[in-house]
Write a structure and sequence with these properties.
This protein folds into two domains: 38 residues; 50 residues, IHF-like DNA-binding proteins (HU Protein, Chain A). Strand 3 and strand 4 form a beta hairpin. By secondary structure, the protein is of the alpha+beta class. The protein is elongated, with a radius of gyration of 19 Å. Helices cover 43% and strands 30% of the residues. Belongs to the bacterial histone-like protein family. This is HU family DNA-binding protein.
Amino acid sequence: MNKSELIDAIAADAGITKAAAKLALESFLGNVGGTLKKGGRVSLVGFGSWSVSARAARDGRNPQTGNTIKIAAKNVVKFKAGADLEGAVN
């Protein structure tokens, strides 16, 4: 399912227009991204939670040349599925 298919599904399920569903989805994504950017955590009980963790700098290897390269430290987004979501999948 891509973004436009999700918007169509939200609009059909909620009985709202596609424009309203698009605004709601974009608001959700913007708020999740903004919270994570500030270092916060987003938790939806039963569905899952998003958090940010720091990945340390490390040495890597260029697969073409075999040379050692430095990989910079960065923040990564993690998602942990909730019990309801895991139950729906399994």
